[in-house]
């Protein structure tokens, strides 16, 4: 079995090929993939959806299902080939020597068992520990993953924990047996950025404590920079570049790696003067890959007769240890040349105020704790006295953690909920008390929404064109079917989809194409205000750039007011004119983007900015990991809503933070924060994000 004195690579994957077999054909998912993970090393696997990252992880776990099969190469764990082990040998390794953490924590937890019982199973099964020893280890591990009150957590069911707490329990479960290799498959995708920062720090600390090697799968390059020592970039089933983090980030030698970095909003990108560059074309289907280089049809350096003549091998990059690229031309490309074909735009002058909220409140009354709704009713204070305005042609970003009230605000604006108090004015019309069923057609068409998940917002039984025409019918556009069809084709042009897509069904579209259809439908009635609720978070980074650029182009053409709800402060910094930061139903900071992103900040904004992973090695951040979860809107803390997690609270001498709600304080024209901190303390705040000066 495994040699206990083995001191070579923990994981060696050589020329791995994995296929899935259907009744029609063999579908090659991974081809000629190689990577090596040394003891204590963290290897990042990045690439677009469908590139084969998770398939590699499942190959290592030998869990490819009935249709998946390894058709070539080897996977060695501590020198032993996993592909040649018996099921009994693999069961002995899984959970003890090799552990995996999945994207959705509830997929790994039994909802009918208490947390303690699930944790105790690990040492009892893998180490034959007694119940007493297993209980002691479980409590110690709960403390290791920085969860409060280990005894209470031990006796809780999974549904009684927040998403971040559930993920910490899954991490604890994976690390209890002290595995040599930990595989993490997008472990923080569903979590808030502040929770994500705590999880990332936790994984790094525990990796060092236990000496665990890691295979970290992510589409977030900034997260990989924070977490990993080495990086492997995948495209269409192949590794296209691998090397140390510094080599791949600063001396990239594959066009796809370069294209990925050009499509993400790093500091310095600007929607008008320095817009993002989306990767042209689409990801190839596994059975339709081109000859030669898989990236060739989308590559600006493509050379016919050279790049498409034969399979491209991985080649070492001269002068760098273990840095390789799957590109024939990397030695002749000028990697420092300025980006071409970048179209700049003049900043559009903002128009009149289109939308204004004045002391808007939304409370929900819910039943008490008694059986079947008995007991005293309780109130959820989802939105508390929100005041803001948005102008024609402006992008106002709304940011904050889950539970802060962003989506509740969106529902009130759309008429899916009515306000409890306060006003919302659309031009000169009050809309806060009018549910969508009673809104006139022009009011409904004026405020539209682009949803987070494009997969759930389209009717799978209706063609793309018919879905847009249906919206036009509801909005009473045009006097004939022919007029509505012409407008539908114009909307497809607007969102840069071929007119032939009108006849396609949603299943025939990629995620980015589906989101474009959703945008076309939102603009079908000539929307004046579009609420975009995380419209690009479910998309790959390369598709994010294209969809974001599309929204900005439509806004420039039509003067649309865009309320952009997001937890991704990098994309917020890139596209927003102003930012509104929400916490526990309150607006705690609002102002022009440049001012919100530099000190002085509200303490919550400071923590949000410090948690944002940025894919740039020249950037340094002060890490501020918030303790505890966001309090319940049913039982908010007294005084300042943020005081239970604020690291600056001690600087307010008279203890007002705990007893008195702060007033809105004006820092400059249009920049306000809700905070008790005196001006002299605010002046002490330094920048959370700093850019290193280039060496002479």
How many beta-strand segments? 26
Query: How far apart are the termini?
Result: 55 Å
Q: Numbering strands along the chain, what is their spatial order in the largest sheet?
A: 6-7-8-3-9-10-12-11
- What is the count of structural domains? 3
CATH class descriptor name of the largest domain: Alpha Beta
Q: Label the overall shape.
A: globular
| Poorly predicted sequence stretches spanning 5 or more consecutive residues | none
Oligomer: single chain
CATH homologous superfamily name of the largest domain?
P-loop containing nucleotide triphosphate hydrolases
**Number of helical segments with 4 or more residues:** 20
Radius of gyration: 27 Å
Keywords:
eight-stranded mixed beta sheet, 3 domains, Rossmann fold, 22% strand, 696 residues, alpha/beta
């Amino acid at each position: 079995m495994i040699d206990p004195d083995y001191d070579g690579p923990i994981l060696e994957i050589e020329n791995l090929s994995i296929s899935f077999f259907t009744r029609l054909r063999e579908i090659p998912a991974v081809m000629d993939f190689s990577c090596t993970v040394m003891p204590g090393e963290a290897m990042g696997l990045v690439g677009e959806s469908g590139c084969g990252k998770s398939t590699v992880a499942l190959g290592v776990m030998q869990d490819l299902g009935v249709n998946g099969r390894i058709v070539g190469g080897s996977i060695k764990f501590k020198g032993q080939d996993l592909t040649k082990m018996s099921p009994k040998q693999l069961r002995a390794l899984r959970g003890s020597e090799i552990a995996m953490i999945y994207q959705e924590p509830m997929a790994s937890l039994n909802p009918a068992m208490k947390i303690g019982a699930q944790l105790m199973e690990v040492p009892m099964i893998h180490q034959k520990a007694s119940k007493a020893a297993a209980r002691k280890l479980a409590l110690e591990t709960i403390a290791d993953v920085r969860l409060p009150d280990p005894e209470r957590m031990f006796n809780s069911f999974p549904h009684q924990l927040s998403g971040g707490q559930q993920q910490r329990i899954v991490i604890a479960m994976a690390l209890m047996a002290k595995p040599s290799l930990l595989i993490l498959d997008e472990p923080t995708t569903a979590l808030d950025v502040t929770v994500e920062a705590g999880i990332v720090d936790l994984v790094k600390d525990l990796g060092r404590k236990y000496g665990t090697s890691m295979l970290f799968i992510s589409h977030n390059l900034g997260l990989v920079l924070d977490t990993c020592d080495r990086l492997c970039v995948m495209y269409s089933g192949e590794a296209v570049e691998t090397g140390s983090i510094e080599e791949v980030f600063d001396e990239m030698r594959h066009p796809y790696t370069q294209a990925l970095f050009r499509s993400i909003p790093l500091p310095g990108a600007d929607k008008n003067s320095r817009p993002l560059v989306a990767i042209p074309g689409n990801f190839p289907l596994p059975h339709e890959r081109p000859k030669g280089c898989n990236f060739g049809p989308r590559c600006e350096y493509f050379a016919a007769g050279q790049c498409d003549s034969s399979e491209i091998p991985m080649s070492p990059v001269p002068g760098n240890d273990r840095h390789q690229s799957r590109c024939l031309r990397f030695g002749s490309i000028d990697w420092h040349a300025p980006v071409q074909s970048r179209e700049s735009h003049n900043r559009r002058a903002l128009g009149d105020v289109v939308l204004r909220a004045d002391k808007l409140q939304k409370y929900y009354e819910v039943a008490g704790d008694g059986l079947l709704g008995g007991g005293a009713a309780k109130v959820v204070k989802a939105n508390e006295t929100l005041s803001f305005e948005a102008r024609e042609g402006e992008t106002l970003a709304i940011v904050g953690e889950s539970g802060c009230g962003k989506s509740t605000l969106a529902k009130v604006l759309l008429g899916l909920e009515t306000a409890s108090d306060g006003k919302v004015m659309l031009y000169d019309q009050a809309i806060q008390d009018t549910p969508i069923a009673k809104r006139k057609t022009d009011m409904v068409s004026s405020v539209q929404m682009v949803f987070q998940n494009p997969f759930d917002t389209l009717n799978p039984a209706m063609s793309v064109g018919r879905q847009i025409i249906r919206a036009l019918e509801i909005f009473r556009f045009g006097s004939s079917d022919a007029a509505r069809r012409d407008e539908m084709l114009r909307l497809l042009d607007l969102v840069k989809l071929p007119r032939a897509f009108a006849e396609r069904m949603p299943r025939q579209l990629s995620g980015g194409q589906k989101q474009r259809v959703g945008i076309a439908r939102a603009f079908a009635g000539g929307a004046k205000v579009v609420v975009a609720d995380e419209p690009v978070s479910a998309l790959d980074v390369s598709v994010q750039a294209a969809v974001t650029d599309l929204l900005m182009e439509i806004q420039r053409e039509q003067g649309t007011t865009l309320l952009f709800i997001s937890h991704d402060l990098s994309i917020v910094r890139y596209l927003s004119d102003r930012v509104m930061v929400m916490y526990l139903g309150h607006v705690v900071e609002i102002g022009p983007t440049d001012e919100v992103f530099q000190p002085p900040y509200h303490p919550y904004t400071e923590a949000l900015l410090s948690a944002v992973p940025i894919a740039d090695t020249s950037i340094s951040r002060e890490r501020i990991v918030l303790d505890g979860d966001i309090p319940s809107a049913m039982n908010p803390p007294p005084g300042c809503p943020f005081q239970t997690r604020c690291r600056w609270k001690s600087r307010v001498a008279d203890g007002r933070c705990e007893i008195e709600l702060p007033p809105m304080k004006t820092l400059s024209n249009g920049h306000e924060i809700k905070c008790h901190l005196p001006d002299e303390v605010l002046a002490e705040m330094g920048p959370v994000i700093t850019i290193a000066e280039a060496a002479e």
